[in-house]
Amino acid sequence: MLTTMGLFSGKVGLIMGVANDRSIAWAIAEALHREGAELAYTHLPGPSNERRVRRLVEAHQPKVFLPCDVQSDDDIANVFSAIEDQYGQLDLVVHAVAFAPPAELRNPYVETTRQGWHVAMDISAYSLVAVSRAARGLMESGGSILTISYFGAEKVMPGYNVMGVCKAALEHSVRYLAWDLGPKNIRVNAISAGPVRTLSSAGIAGFDEMQRHAAQKSPLRRNVDLHELASTAVFLLSEMSSGITGEILHVDCGYNIVGL
Ligand code: NAD
What we know:
By secondary structure, the protein is α/β, with parallel strands linked by helices. The protein contains eight helices and seven strands. It has a seven-stranded parallel beta sheet with strand order 3-2-1-4-5-6-7, with helices on both faces. α1 (24-34) crosses α8 (226-237) and α3 (73-87) runs parallel beside α5 (114-136). The two termini are 31 Å apart. The mean pLDDT is 96. Nicotinamide-adenine-dinucleotide is lined by residues 17-19, 23-25, 44, 68-71, 96-99, 123, 148-150, 193, 195-196, 198-201.
């Protein structure tokens, strides 16, 4: 695990997407916290979600810990207004949020429903636009926004289905957002993460096969781990990557370079 000394001292970050201690967002949050960041958190609405996430994040003593369904403009506005009240500004956003109705990940892609498509796109792709727009107003001294994608955006991964199409939209959205926000020195990047076992990935038919195949075929002959994703997130969120924006950085043990 990469460690430096207070890389994010005095910085304020918003973490969206912690569900439990296996969440990619949580691994990133732990790394940012170790580096001195002050963190605000959102959780999916509902008492059991709140309890589960609160137990985890209370060690970081967040001044902002609020429900946020990214399909709700009011929820998003409420979170950013609370951040403004508490901190007056924001430096970092981690957007690690995705969802598709389970049937859309079980049935063949050609069976994707209009409703399933809308829900998946809204939560998994559009939300980055809405969140970046809200963050822009609080990033007067510049900032860094990070989202998490997957190789299924570029190639067909049987079973990933509409989520692959969402990730393609998410990745290109990263580029358009980078263009719009660049003049304000707000950078927008994505990690294209190799498969790791989490609550979300457990819902993907064929996930075990994705992991097995990646371990056999990637140049490093193994799967990526959460610490490696977190270390790369630290890099992309920090000044160490000040010249990088609109980038989709593969953190997948090299799997994406292999043709056969
Ligand atoms: P996770 O289940 O821990 O995190 C997904 C998060 O999305 C959860 O916290 C959930 O509450 C949140 N979410 C879902 N619907 C939401 C909504 N309407 N509003 C707000 N939040 C909502 O799983 P994870 O694997 O850590 O996923 C984080 C990100 O990483 C996702 O974008 C996922 O697609 C991406 N990713 C995961 C893998 C993997 O193999 N696990 C690989 C590449 C990319």
